[in-house]
Design brief:
single chain, alpha+beta, 5-stranded antiparallel beta sheet
Amino acid sequence: MTGIIDRLEDGFAVVELDGGVCSIPLSDAPAGVREGQLVKVEDGRIVSVDEEATARRAAAMHSRFQRLRRRK
């Protein structure tokens, strides 16, 4: 299942999934995970980070933000 890391708090990664939100201990995640990354979750663990999808998502969000700034 694919999700997005919403935030890191108290030693947990809070991940938004299709079915809701789950908290995964950072000990069950690759080192260096950070907010906004797209991750693959299996058996309650973050098994990988999709760096390419994360970069595409960040670029799309930046583009949307720039369009909103120009509207004012």
